[in-house]
Design a protein that fits this description.
17% strand, Double Stranded RNA Binding Domain, alpha+beta, elongated
Length: 137
């Protein structure tokens, strides 16, 4: 059971976890132990509320396939249990990030005082640089 929020939970049957061999360096251990976790989560078949499903399907993330399946590969840690926890945490964070509402940006103008201060500092810097020039007699 993966708890997403106070009222949203995912059952174990919705998340497909399989152990695979991790890639990369690790000596002899990496060649004989399946410590990496491959997580698959079908958004359309899940029991998530429709709002969550729509937001996840419209999300442009490379971990979400065209069919609406989230695929996460966790191989950071040496043990399978740690990688399983990492994959589940990353799934939870992905689902929660889809529900964050981005605040609309309102266009604003700089104040007259800030414009004046900007021009004054530019004039001061220009005057300082003009004093560094070669003196012409």
């Amino acid at each position: 059971m993966l708890k997403i929020s106070n009222n949203v939970e995912l059952a174990d049957w919705e998340i497909d976890l399989s152990a695979i061999r991790a890639m990369g360096s690790g000596g002899q251990n990496v060649n004989k132990v399946s410590s990496a976790i491959h997580l698959r989560f079908d958004i359309k078949r899940s029991t998530l509320p429709d709002v969550y499903k729509q937001k996840l399907l419209t999300l442009s993330d490379s971990r979400i396939t065209k069919d609406g399946v989230i695929i996460i590969k966790a191989q950071t840690y040496r043990t399978q249990e740690q990688n399983r926890e990492d994959a589940l945490n990353r799934l939870r964070e992905l689902i929660l990030s889809a529900m964050v509402v981005v605040k609309k940006r309102r266009a604003t103008k700089p104040t007259k005082g800030s414009q004046r201060r900007r021009v004054e500092s530019k004039k001061r810097k220009g005057a300082t640089k003009s004093l560094r020039r070669k003196v012409d007699f």
